[in-house]
Amino acid sequence: MLRILGKASSINVRKVLWTCAELQIPFEREDWGSGFKPTDTPEFLALNPCAMVPVIQDGDFTLWESNTIIRYLAGNYGGADLYPAEPRVRARVDQWIDWQASELNRSWSYAFMSLARQSPDHQDSAALLNGIEQWSQTMGILDQQLQKTGAYVSGDRFSLADIPIGLSVNRWFETPLAHPDYPAVSAYYQRLSQREGFRLYGRNGTP
């Protein structure tokens, strides 16, 4: 059985859990990370030298990096509907997965740490205002894309890209800030909420 190492509240672990739900992959999950088993031990570092969750073990195969993991699961467990083989269609999915990991993650870093995590190192008012503006602008790009597709981020069908993007949208709405009116993002959030995997793992790791 697939073994998943990482606490359920981690956004990156939830990518893997939601993917497993979509593909109906049975798994066993172990709590690793802040507040649970430490990731800086020799045992864990032997699995992931970066000391980060999630890590999966699929038989004798060990893998880390959440977006790589979900791509692997889709490829190994019959996920062609989520991650199509046709190069141009797959490229669109990959484009938005990579955008989430780079542009969107970077845009929220200061505001999320300040407002949601209450980090004492992220309480500069000017930096916070700038962080909120950057996050809002990046979410505006997503809103424009969703207006074009009218459904999901890479097209008219749910794909693997909607898992990291959907979790990011959840983070956006759960962070206490003034949210611009992005009707396509709001409709997308409600659309995702109809999926069982999102209901289980899309809202901060709780059903």
What would you say this structure looks like, in words?
The chain has 207 residues and is an alpha+beta fold. It has two domains: 75 residues, Glutaredoxin (3-Layer(aba) Sandwich); 113 residues, Glutathione S-transferase Yfyf (Class Pi), Chain A, domain 2 (Up-down Bundle), CATH 1.20.1050. Helices cover 54% and strands 8% of the residues. A hairpin with a 2-residue loop joins strand 3 and strand 4. Helix 1 packs parallel to helix 3. The longest helix has 29 residues. The relative contact order is 0.14. The model has no long low-confidence stretch (mean pLDDT 95).
Mean pLDDT: 95
For the secondary structure, the number of strands is 4
Anisotropy-based shape:
globular
Query: What is the CATH class name of the largest domain?
Result: Mainly Alpha
Number of helices: 8
The helix-and-strand class reads: alpha+beta
Secondary structure elements and pairings:
Layout: E1 2-5, H1 11-23, E2 27-30, H2 42-45, E3 55-58, E4 61-64, H3 66-76, H4 87-115, H5 125-149, H6 162-174, H7 183-192, H8 196-201
Parallel strand pairs: 1-2
Antiparallel strand pairs: 1-3, 3-4
